[in-house]
Amino acid sequence: MKSRAIFIVGASTVLIFAMVSRAEVKIFADHNRNESAMPDFKFKSVPSPSESDAATKAKFTIVDGRRDRNGGNVDKLSDGKIPLEEDQPSENFFFNAGTDGGRLLVDLGGTIDIKQVNTYSWHPGTRGPQVYKLYAGDGKADDFNSQPKRGTDPRTCGWKLVASVDTRPKDKPGGGQYGVSICDSNGTIGRYHYLLFDISRTEGTDPFGNTFYSEIDVVEPNAPVVVATQTTKPYGKTFEAEKGKYRITIYTSETPDLTEWAHKELAPVLQKWYPKIVKMLPSEGYQAPRRLSITFSPNMQGVAAASGTRVRCGAGWFRRQLQGEAKGAVVHELVHVVQQYGRARRSDPNAARTPGWLVEGIADYIRWFLYEPQTRGAEVTSRNIARARYDSSYRISGNFLNWVTETYDKDIVRKLNAAARQGRYNEKLWKEATGHTVQELGDEWKRNLKKKIAAETDATAKTKTPTEEDK
Ligand SMILES: [Zn+2]
After folding, report:
1. What pLDDT does residue 95 have?
2. How high is the pLDDT of residue 15?
3. What pLDDT is attached to residue 6?
4. Vertex 219 angle, CA 215 and 220, to 5°
């Protein structure tokens, strides 16, 4: 069999031609990278998942391999429901950790014309891309074996190889959302009763190389297409920032009581501050994510967390803080969306790791000293001075960064950010920028704080005492 691959340079769609039999099978593979993958599974050329295709009624069976019990069962592949988030094991089917994939049989219930076979997956890491071979059969051959195990070439028992799919990007992190569409120049791939997927893991360097498959569609000619919906129908509203350059979607479907606050009070802050933060934290050749989402979750413990371009917020904490710290907490997460320091290490394992205190310190510096300085929420006081260290993280490190900015170098945060994102953070940067090591800076900062607090305590004592005595 002859096959060749054609890569359309510069586009996210890869078109692979495989010559099989007389017909020309085409494989379209679209990749929405982490920063642009959204729960709607929209692709450049591959249709979005359908909930009314022939696979919906088909029977899926594991022929070889074991499913991972952290994921959904094999029915997840045909239920017409797609995940809402990039790392949602229960809404995907995947083979067991530490194994190299397996085989899946799809019994279509009878012989049908097949126009397309479409497969969808979503994961922020190496479980995003798809690697599989698709075989098809009508089950009529005398030697037909409907469940050939690994080790048996399906072509020897009544199957035809339709396509070989491998969407792993070359030299790039593979995370994101993938849509693959297998179709044919003739209009149909053929008439078949059975499909067999021989699925491989994408990598074997750790146990987590099995792809998170979200949905498999089998599309008949002229079939009406009903686009699949998320497990939980998300109610999202998109807000544009900087004249449409950035799009921020807020999901409150699971927390309708927060919708009004999120749209009226939070959204304007995001529209104003996301572009501002992008401008504050530039680095050469870097394009900050243009699409991001904020999801309020009733089940999430804690405050908020950012992963890739998605921010999740714990509804319980937000309900208590709507008039307090709520908006600032999201501003902190916006900084993480812009930072993207993990990228350097994903493309180069030798890239320098940025210390966590600095990652959080930058987020809290921007939040407390630039976004809401009037709240004075990151002051070091007599209550917490004893334990304060420059690397205490969060507000304390934010306070330290603010002091270095005001005292030594107004661009220190910009410089540290660029180095962190490019995987070249090093303590020498402090010395280059300020003439002092970070430890010396930390000591001086703390001496100043102590002096300031002592002076304030003194002043309060002096003004208070007489008034109290007067009474
Ligand atoms: Zn944080």
Report:
1. 97
2. 58
3. 38
4. 160
Ligand 1 midpoint to CA 375 (Å): 19
Measure 78 CA to ligand 1 centroid, in angstroms: 37
Q: What is the CATH number of the domain that holds 285?
A: 3.30.2010
**Counting every residue, how long is the chain?**
471
For 369, the domain range is: 341-460
C-alpha of residue 125 to centroid of ligand 1, in Å: 21
Q: Which residue ranges in the chain fall short of pLDDT 50?
A: 1-11, 19-21, 466-471
**395 Cα to the center of ligand 1, angstroms:** 10
CA distance 391 to 457: 25
Provide the whole-model pTM. Answer: 0.60
Query: What's the gap in Å between 336 CA and the centre of ligand 1?
Result: 7
Which pLDDT belongs to residue 23? Answer: 63
Looking at the structure, tell me whether residues 84 and 36 fall in a common domain: yes
Residue 332 CA to ligand 1 center (angstroms) comes to: 6
Q: What is the whole-number distance in angstroms between the Cα of residue 459 and the centre of ligand 1? A: 36
pLDDT of 463: 63
> How far is ligand 1, taken at its centre, from the CA of residue 174, in Å?
25
Number of domains in the chain: 3
Looking at the fold, whether 248 and 209 belong to one and the same domain comes out as: no
Name the domain boundary from 198, 230, 262: 230
Give yes or no for a contact between 333 and 248, defined as CB atoms under 8 angstroms apart: no
- Which residues, including other chains, have CB under 8 Å from residue 132's CB and lie 6 or more apart? 101, 119, 164, 165, 197, 198, 199, 200
Q: How far is the CA of 201 from the centre of ligand 1 (A)?
A: 32
**How many Å apart are CA 319 and CA 329, to the nearest integer?**
13
